[in-house]
Each structure stands twice: as C-alpha cells, then as structure tokens.
Amino acid sequence: MNHQQPNFDNLSLFQKLQQELARIIEETPAGERLQSEPELASSLGVSRATLREAMRSFEGQGLIRRRQGVGTFVLDHQQNIETGLEVLESIETQARRIGLDVKMGYLDINKIKSDVELAKKLGINENEEAIRISRVIWVAERPAAFLVDTLIPGILEEKDLSDGFTGSVLDLIIKRGKPELSHSKTEVIASPAPSDIAKKMQIQRGDVLLKLDALLFDKTGRMIDYSQSYFIPGFMKFEVIRSIGK
Amino acid sequence: MNHQQPNFDNLSLFQKLQQELARIIEETPAGERLQSEPELASSLGVSRATLREAMRSFEGQGLIRRRQGVGTFVLDHQQNIETGLEVLESIETQARRIGLDVKMGYLDINKIKSDVELAKKLGINENEEAIRISRVIWVAERPAAFLVDTLIPGILEEKDLSDGFTGSVLDLIIKRGKPELSHSKTEVIASPAPSDIAKKMQIQRGDVLLKLDALLFDKTGRMIDYSQSYFIPGFMKFEVIRSIGK
DNA sequence: CAGTGGTCTAGACCACACG
DNA sequence: GTGTGGTCTAGACCACTGA
C-alpha cells in the first residue's frame, strides 16, 4: 500500500483537501449535517486524521461546528461585530447594538487566594482573596467568547453577581457607578485554545483564539480587575487606528 | 494492544505529556538539540503523532524550534518587543530601539494585476498593476514576522527596492518623504499559519499567528498600501489603551 | 443501544540537511 | 548515505449524544 503520494506540484494533499472541503461546505445548506467523518474520509480518499486536520481551519472560521456524538454541521454566515479597539466596551453592548442576541452560558464564580504572581499583577497582598468570574458568552446561539475576570477585593460581592448578572463585569460596574472606570491596558495575543476552554466553547483544543489580556483601572488610577478574554476568530472584528509619530 | 487509556482524571494524555515536555525543555540548555522524535516518543511511551501535537505549543511559545533534516532545538529566552498598537512604526524601528539585530530574510517583489477584490480594496481600477512585496523579518537570528505589502502604482518603483531596502516599506516611504503618511486602519486577527508562510517562517502549518491587516493612508486621505503582517506570538507584545466612553 | 466525533497508536514514505 | 523532521494511513478504543 502506498502511504504517501509524492508532492509533485508543491501543493500538499492537505491543501487540495481543503479546497474540496470548502466546496462541499459551500454546497451544503446552513444547518445541514455533513457526512460522518469515516464516510467523508473514505469518499475523499484520505484518512480520517488528514480529514480532521483539514476541517480544523473551517471550524476556526466559524463555517462548521463539530459536535461529539452528534455530527458536523454547516453554520449560517455570521454577522461580524466590529469594534474599535480603543473603546472599552463589553461584547454584550457591542452585540446588542447591532441587534444580535446575547446570552451567558457556563458561569463559575470563585474566591481565590492570590499567589505571588497574581498578587503582583493585581497590586494586592499575597494570600489576599480575589474574586474570579469565568463564563462563556453566546452570541446568536453560538459560543463567541470565554471571559475570565479576576477582581481585587471590595469591588463586587457575590450577591452582586447572583441576580441580574448577564455576563459583563464591565457593564455591571458601570451600572453600579463605582468605582468610576477609566481605561484598560490591553495586550493583544494570538493563542491556541487550552483544552478546558476549548471544551466550554465547543471548539477543538489548539484552535486559534484571539486573546485580550487587560488590566482595568479606575479614575483614581487604581487597578481593579485583571481580565482575560478569548474570542473565536471570524466573530468579532477588532480594529485600531495606528498613527505616525504619535 | 491497548490503543488508548481511559481518561480517569480528566487530564488528557496530551496534557500530561505537555508537562513532561515542559520539564525536559526547561532542563535542556539553550541551543542544545533534543532527542529525535522517535527516540523521545519511545522514551515517553507515546506515539510520534501525539508527541508532535504536544510539541506544537512549545514551538508557538518560541521555546523550541524544529528544523527538518536537522533536529529540534531549545531556544534561549527571547526579549520581547513591546509596542503600543496606536503608534504606527515598523518592527525594524521597534527592534532596533531595544538593541536587537534585525535582518531581512526571503524577499519577493512582484507586479500583480489587481483582481476585482484587490482593486476594490486599494481603490484602483481592475487590471491595474500593483506592486507586491513579501519578505520575512528576522529578529535576533530568528524569523519573527512575515510581511506582505501591496502598494498602489506610483508609490515605489522596483529600483527603490533594489538597493538599501531593509525590509520596511513604512520606513522607506518615510525616508523618501512622499507621500506623507498619516495613519493606518488596522484589523487585529488570530490566524493559523498557511503552509507557504509557515515554511518561510520555519514554523509548522497551523501554528498560531497574530495577524495585522492594515490599510495605510497618506495625509491627503488617499489609501496607498494594503499590508498584511504575520507575527510569531511571544516575540512581539502588542498593547493598546482602551478607554471608557470615547 | 447505535452512531457520532475525540484521541491515540504503529508504521510507512517523503523532503530536507549535512557530511 | 544517514538521520532528521513532515505527512499520511489504517485501525483501535474512548466519550458523548440521542433515540
């Protein structure tokens, strides 16, 4: 049995397969299920491993969704949420503005003792308790973001989060009116999805995510929140104006 | 033969393997070669496929580099280049400021006929010729970025690029003094590395890259350049200040 | 329970670097 | 030529879903 074809045209089997897959996905109506992986692999003449590898990028682009035990489905074309990065605004606010439905999925609220690293980042003492809020944000019936906020003590209590919390720590603090928020210092990172986050977002471990790592400051210059936000590409569009000689 | 262990502790073999690998990489002096993949796989008791999957993230973090035909090497800890995203500045300028060595690797200059899409993006006529400049930027002896600029006609000629071009279209235009540059409208994207780019950057296809997609404007408001920049994570640190209610 | 996607294995061959 | 990483295959078992 021949285990690999020579690579004559400098186009990998993988690339050709992607073109084939793109066609198949395009021709499949939104919401429909694709053939099962073994069937597809066989009909395309490749192994399941290669097929799955090629499928990954389409899932990253938000064109398909694979669901264990169910099947692989073609998604309908999504509406982009466009955001100027310079403006600090919750994904919820952004999505609602263009009329998209927003829901909170999984929610986990914890008190955590800060280790050396976290204490340093938050500017609090070691072993002091911080509140950590993790949740998945669904937009238009699909997971769009995974958000983790770690707040210094005294900003929010658990009761603040028990009723009426819709997913945005930012909006909640703004609504309460204090502390008065000023700005965030945000680092932009590309990151493969860790296993635990991938599972909650219904994507594959290693899929590409855009991550915003932010430190949130109030108007007195005090840092109050360390926030980590993971976004599925193709869903949000982050833009920034860069100027010469600023 | 047992083909897969039950997942008792909810920690995948993959995750345990990553911890093991992290230890091995940590204990290996910078510049040293690791065992070959078959050796490592065997000594860790996993298949080569699983080992390679686990290695990917370390390569993405810039901790190791795999080189076909040579081996896998542990890199020394790199210095970060920190950049405020609001400022439009070449990676070359940024790197030199903190004393890092910058070189241009692969360089390709082409005239291309613009198709409908490109013409629309650049604001020129279909079939008009644009200049496309692709190159790899090495920082501190390692590929750090892959840059593609597509310029409207009349901005730069090929002779401008034949001598003294060090990799930055931005710096070159600034040096020539005209047109006078103003700002860029930049979209921030997380993207898996396409095969061709991965090869030139000496990383693996599918590795995570941070991509900046920018439209560059001069002071008259004319768009002159569409630039695509791919960055290896962990190398550049992009920051932006986000403000409330702007 | 049957059927789906998720993970992993063992082994083959290809492409590349270096002596 | 020898040895490395790069790609692909065939097939096994695991984990999950829904009937």
TrEMBL record, chains A, B:
Residues 7-77 form the HTH gntR-type domain. PROSITE patterns: HTH_GNTR. Pfam families: GntR, UTRA. The keyword Metal-binding does not apply. One of its GO terms (biological process) is negative regulation of DNA-templated transcription. CDD domains: WHTH_GntR. The lineage of its organism: Bacteria, Bacillati, Chloroflexota, Anaerolineae, Anaerolineales. This is Transcriptional regulator, GntR family. SUPFAM superfamilies: Chorismate lyase-like, Winged helix' DNA-binding domain.
